[in-house]
Design a protein that fits this description.
This protein is an alpha/beta fold. It has one domain: Rossmann fold (3-Layer(aba) Sandwich), CATH 3.40.50. Helices cover 28% and strands 36% of the residues. The protein has helices spanning 25-40, 45-50, 60-72, 124-135, and strands at residues 9-12, 20-23, 53-57, 75-81, 90-96, 99-105, 112-120, 139-149, 162-168. The strands form two sheets. Strands 5-6-4-3-7-8-9 form a seven-stranded mixed beta sheet, with helices on both faces. Strands 1-2 form a two-stranded antiparallel sheet. Strand 7, helix 4 (124-135) and strand 8 form a beta-alpha-beta unit. Helix 1 (25-40) runs parallel beside helix 3 (60-72). The longest helix has 16 residues, at 25-40.
């Protein structure tokens, strides 16, 4: 059994003093297929049957959502930074630790999605992505994240689950 957490390197004071960055590069280099397999196992067979697509949140969420979509024969939807998609259905602004940002998505047609990102920190990006996807006519079934920084969030969006492969409690 792969110890995924042991393959993530802690980088203190990056990108600024006081921040502890969790570097997933070594994990992806050495155990990417196993990581995707383990993330896929976070959903039941019934949940996989019900989902139409995985929505990756720019940019590292693309890595995991696209690989999961390929592995499970599902569609892939991009949630991008403002100005990166032709004819976006709508955009959603949200607060960051150091300012604001905006996300965009193309119009859906009622597809059932799981939103996917690399790290769940405060939950702001997942919250904005879920609201955006809902307004663009998607149904959000849940959230997948490689890492959950549990000490930074109590994220919840309606009754939708958040599933993560790796959790940090401090």
């Amino acid at each position: 059994m792969t110890d995924f957490k042991a393959l993530i390197h802690d980088v203190p004071d990056f990108p600024k003093p006081g921040v502890l960055f969790r570097d997933i590069g070594p994990l992806l280099l050495k155990h990417f297929p196993e990581t995707i397999e383990a993330m896929a196992a976070l959903l039941s067979d019934a949940e996989w049957q019900a989902v139409d697509a995985l929505a990756g949140i720019e940019s590292r969420g693309f890595i995991f959502a696209a690989a999961l979509a390929q592995a499970k024969g599902k569609g892939f939807v991009m949630i991008r930074k403002k100005g990166k998609l032709p004819k976006p259905a709508c955009h959603q602004e949200y607060a960051l630790e150091y300012g604001t940002a905006a996300l965009e998505i193309q119009q859906g047609a009622g597809q059932r999605l799981w939103l996917v990102d690399d790290v769940l920190a405060t939950g702001g990006t997942f919250m904005a992505s879920a609201e955006l996807a809902q307004r663009a006519n998607y149904h959000v079934d849940g959230f997948l994240s490689l890492i959950d920084l549990q000490y930074l969030n109590t994220f919840q969006w309606y009754d939708r689950p958040v599933r993560s492969l790796i959790q940090y409690e401090n």
